[in-house]
C-alpha cells in the first residue's frame, strides 16, 4: 500500500517538474531587442529644437510584449519623458512623415519587428532609452538601449 503512495507521489512530482520546465521563467531579460538607427534634431517654432530617435524593436520571443512605459535615462540618472502630447503629434507629424512612423505600438506581437520615431527635449551623450515591458505570461521585463552620442543630423 505504501509503495503505491510513493509511486503516485513520484508521478505527481514528475508532472510538476515537466510543467515548470515548459513555463517561461526568464524574468530578468526580455526576448525583445532594439537599436537606435538615427538621431535627428527637429526645429520647432520659437527657436525650440527637439531630438528624434529612430527606434527599431524586434520581438524574438513566443509571447507578445506590452510596452508599459518608455523614457530616456540620462547619465546623471534623470528620467526624461517622451514628447507625446496630442498637441505635439498634431502640430509636427507632417514634418516627420517623410522620416517614417511617429511613435511605437503598445503591443509587439511575437516574432514581429517595428520601427518608429520618439522625441525628447534633449538627448545627452551616454543616455539610454529604457522600456518597461509586460509579456503574455505577466512577467515584468526591462530593455535598455544605449543612445550613441554625437551623430545628430539636421533634416
How would you sum up this structure, described in words?
This protein is of the alpha+beta class. It contains 2 helices and 9 strands, in the order αββββαβββββ. 21% of the residues lie in helices and 41% in strands. The strands form 2 sheets. Strands 3, 4, 5, 7 and 8 form a 5-stranded antiparallel sheet that branches. It has a 4-stranded mixed sheet with strand order 6-2-1-9, with no helix packed on it. The longest helix is centred in the first third of the chain and has 21 residues, at 2-22. The protein starts with a helix and ends with a strand. The mean pLDDT is 81.
User: How many helices in DSSP terms?
Assistant: 2
Briefly note the structural class of the backbone.
alpha+beta
Cα distance spanning the termini: 81 Å
> H/E series, N to C?
HEEEEHEEEEE
Report the C-alpha radius of gyration, rounded.
22 Å
Number of strands: 9
Compute the number of structural domains. Answer: 1
Mean pLDDT across all residues, rounded?
A: 81
Identify the CATH class.
Answer: Mainly Beta
Main sheet overview: 5 strands, antiparallel
Content of β-strand: 35-45%
Name the poorly predicted regions: none
Q: If classified by CATH, what would the architecture be? A: Sandwich
Short description:
The protein is an alpha+beta fold.
Write the layout of secondary structure elements.
Layout: H1 2-22, E1 32-44, E2 48-59, E3 65-73, E4 79-80, H2 86-96, E5 107-108, E6 113-120, E7 128-135, E8 140-146, E9 152-153
Parallel strand pairs: 1-9
Antiparallel strand pairs: 1-2, 2-6, 3-4, 3-5, 3-7, 7-8
Amino acid at each position: 500500500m505504501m509503495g503505491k503512495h510513493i509511486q503516485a507521489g513520484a508521478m505527481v512530482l514528475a508532472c510538476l517538474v515537466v510543467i515548470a520546465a515548459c513555463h517561461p521563467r526568464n524574468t530578468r531579460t526580455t526576448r525583445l531587442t532594439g537599436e537606435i538607427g538615427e538621431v535627428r534634431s527637429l526645429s520647432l517654432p520659437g527657436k525650440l529644437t527637439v531630438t528624434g530617435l529612430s527606434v527599431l524593436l524586434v520581438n524574438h520571443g513566443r509571447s507578445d510584449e506590452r510596452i508599459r512605459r518608455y523614457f530616456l535615462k540620462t547619465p546623471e540618472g534623470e528620467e526624461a519623458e517622451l514628447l507625446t502630447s496630442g498637441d505635439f503629434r498634431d502640430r509636427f507629424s507632417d514634418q516627420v512623415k517623410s522620416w517614417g512612423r511617429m511613435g511605437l505600438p503598445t503591443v509587439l506581437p511575437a516574432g514581429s519587428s517595428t520601427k518608429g520615431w520618439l522625441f525628447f527635449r534633449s538627448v545627452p551623450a551616454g543616455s539610454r532609452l529604457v522600456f518597461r515591458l509586460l509579456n503574455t505570461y505577466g512577467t515584468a521585463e526591462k530593455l535598455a538601449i544605449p543612445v550613441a552620442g554625437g551623430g545628430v543630423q539636421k533634416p
